[in-house]
Write a structure and sequence with these properties.
With about 300 residues, the chain is α/β, with parallel strands linked by helices. The radius of gyration is 19 Å and the shape is globular. The model has no long low-confidence stretch (mean pLDDT about 95).
Length: about 300
C-alpha cells in the first residue's frame, strides 16, 4: 500500500509518502515538509500561540492535499514533544481535526523512543547485537537500549536542540551561559545513565536525527548525495572539539559549515552540547549513523499490524 506519514515535530512538520509492503522495506515516494518551529510559538505559560496553531493547521491541510495527489491509501499522523507538553495540546489537536479532518496522535516520550529504536533495529538487523540508540529532535532527547526490537529501556528527556537553543541567547552566546546550559544538560542525562547502561554493554551504538547527521557531516562524514548505504560515523573526540568551536561562532558562521543549512545553524550548538554530553556520560566513543528514525518506525509498526 501507499502510506502517508505526517510527523509534527518541534522544528519541522514533515509528510513522508512511502510504498510499503509486508516483508519489504518502505520505499520513499515523495516528501513534503516545512520548518514551522512550533517551539518558537510557545507562550510564557507553555501554551502554543494562535499563530502557531494556525500555521500548523494550514500546513497539515496542505499535506493532506499532497498525500491525495500522490495516491496515498492510508494516512498516519502523529505529534511529539511540542504538542505533547503544551497545556492546550488537546485544543490544538481538536482545531487541526475540525479544520482538516486529520487526527493527530500524540506520542509519549517512551513511545517515541521505542518506535525510533524499532527503525534502528530493522535498519541494522540482528547482526548488530545489543544496540544503544541516541536520538535528538527539536524538543527532546531519546535514549534506548536492548537486544530485541522492543528495547529493554527507552527514555525521553526535555533536551531537544530547539528547546535548549532558547536558553542560549546571544550570537554567539556568552561563555558562562554555555557552561551553565552544559552543566544542566549533563545533570539531567546523568540521572538516567544507570537505567540505560544496566541492561548490558552495547555491541553497536547508533545516532539518528538531522542534528546528528549535520554534526557528523561537519566532522567529515560523507555528504547526503552519496546515498543512505554509505557508513557514516561521529567520534566523541571530534564532537568535543566541535562544541568548543561552535561556542565561539556566530549563526552566520555556522551556516557556512558543510552540510549545515541556515535554518539548522541556530540550533547546532545546543544539539552538539546535548549529544556530546550523552556520548560522554554513556561511555560512547563513536556513533554509527542510521538514516531511519521515528517516521520509519511508525510505518514499520503499522506494517507489522497487517
Amino acid at each position: 500500500m501507499r502510506l502517508g506519514v505526517i510527523d509534527v515535530g518541534s522544528n519541522t512538520v514533515h509528510l513522508l509518502v512511502v510504498d510499503a509492503h509486508e516483508g519489504a522495506h518502505p520505499t520513499p515516494a515523495s516528501s513534503h515538509k516545512q520548518e514551522l518551529r512550533l517551539s518558537e510559538h510557545v507562550l510564557p505559560d507553555g501554551q502554543i500561540g494562535p499563530e502557531g496553531i494556525q500555521r500548523l493547521t494550514q500546513f497539515v491541510g496542505e499535506c493532506l492535499e499532497v498525500a491525495e495527489d500522490n495516491g496515498v491509501e492510508e494516512m498516519l499522523a502523529f505529534a511529539t514533544s511540542a504538542v505533547r507538553e503544551a497545556p492546550n495540546g488537546d485544543a490544538v489537536l481538536k482545531h487541526v481535526e475540525n479544520e482538516t479532518g486529520v487526527q493527530l496522535k500524540v506520542l509519549s516520550g517512551s513511545s517515541e523512543s521505542r518506535l525510533t529504536f524499532l527503525a534502528v533495529r530493522r535498519w541494522f538487523g540482528w547482526s548488530a547485537g545489543r544496540v544503544l540508540m541516541i536520538d535528538i529532535g527539536g524538543g527532546s532527547l531519546e535514549l534506548a537500549a536492548g537486544i530485541d526490537e522492543d528495547p529493554d529501556v527507552a527514555t525521553s528527556l526535555p533536551l531537544g536542540a530547539g528547546r535548549l537553543t532558547l536558553e542560549l541567547p546571544g550570537d554567539p552566546p556568552d561563555a558562562q551561559v554555555i557552561r551553565d546550559v552544559r552543566r544542566r544538560v549533563r545533570s539531567q542525562i546523568a540521572k538516567v545513565v544507570r537505567d540505560v547502561t544496566k541492561v548490558g554493554t552495547p555491541d553497536q551504538v547508533v545516532g539518528t536525527s538531522k542534528t546528528i547527521r549535520s554534526l557528523a557531516r561537519i566532522c567529515g562524514a560523507a555528504p547526503r548525495a552519496e546515498g543512505p548505504y554509505v557508513e557514516r560515523t561521529l567520534a566523541l573526540s571530534d564532537l568535543r572539539e566541535l562544541v568548543g568551536r561552535l561556542g565561539s561562532m556566530t549563526i552566520a558562521e555556522r551556516a557556512e559549515l558543510p552540510g549545515v543549512s541556515s535554518s539548522r545553524a541556530p540550533q547546532l550548538l545546543a544539539g552538539a552540547i546535548a549529544v556530546e554530553a550523552a556520548m560522554d556520560l554513556l561511555g560512547v566513543e563513536q556513533l554509527t549513523l542510521c538514516p531511519w528514525a521515528l517516521r520509519e518506525g511508525i510505518i514499520l509498526r503499522r506494517l507489522d499490524s497487517l
